[in-house]
Design goal:
The chain has 153 residues and is mainly beta. The protein is 8% helix and 35% strand. The chain has one helix at 2-14; strands at residues 29-30, 33-34, 54-59, 68-74, 77-84, 91-96, 119-122, 125-128, 131-138, 145-151. The strands form 2 sheets. It has an 8-stranded antiparallel sheet with strand order 3-4-5-6-10-9-8-7, with no helix packed on it. A two-stranded antiparallel ribbon has the order 1-2. A hairpin with a 2-residue loop joins β1 (29-30) and β2. The chain is globular and about 40 Å long. It starts with a helix and ends with a strand.
Length: 153
């Protein structure tokens, strides 16, 4: 009983908030983009396409680089970053940061890319033949995915 009272006191004092480590729904990176964010989505509409996430916008990081970046967050966790082109009107690239985002084969950051006939690799960069815009950067010591980037440039 004393342990339950102690636990209750700790929860009351510290609060019992969740970390939002889970996504509100599965989010997939593919040749079509990230979930409902597609390459044709105007950059200024990116923050209206996914519900259950927050968006932080960073503009003109340096004078030489007028691009803007949206960070997609779930709670305090950054899920992805979306960069604009130099005009600020179109999506240039999407960088996946969270292992919670998967491809259609259910692979993401920290996972091993399963060797398949349609997987094309050069050094530590791979892509599937039917999805040339989705690039996987692997750790140099193996097949573990270190980074996923979507880019049509």
């Amino acid at each position: 009983m004393k342990a339950l009272l102690t636990l209750a006191a700790v929860l009351i004092l510290t609060g019992c908030s969740t970390q939002n480590n889970d996504l509100p729904y599965p989010l997939t990176i593919s040749e079509e983009g990230l979930g409902s964010i597609h390459p044709s989505t105007p950059f200024e509409e990116v923050n209206t396409r996914l519900s259950g996430f927050t968006f932080d916008k960073f503009s003109q990081i340096t004078p030489e680089h007028p691009e803007s970046i949206y960070q997609i967050k779930r709670g305090k966790n950054v899920i992805a970053q979306i960069s604009s082109d130099s005009s600020g009107k179109k999506i240039s690239s999407i960088l996946i940061i969270s292992p919670l985002v998967k491809n259609k084969y259910r692979q993401g950051i920290g996972d091993i890319l399963t060797p398949r006939a349609d997987l094309i690799c050069e050094n530590t960069t791979c892509h599937y033949a039917n999805e040339p815009s989705v690039l996987y950067t692997l750790n140099p010591n193996g097949q573990t995915v270190r980074e996923i980037t979507f880019s049509r440039l």
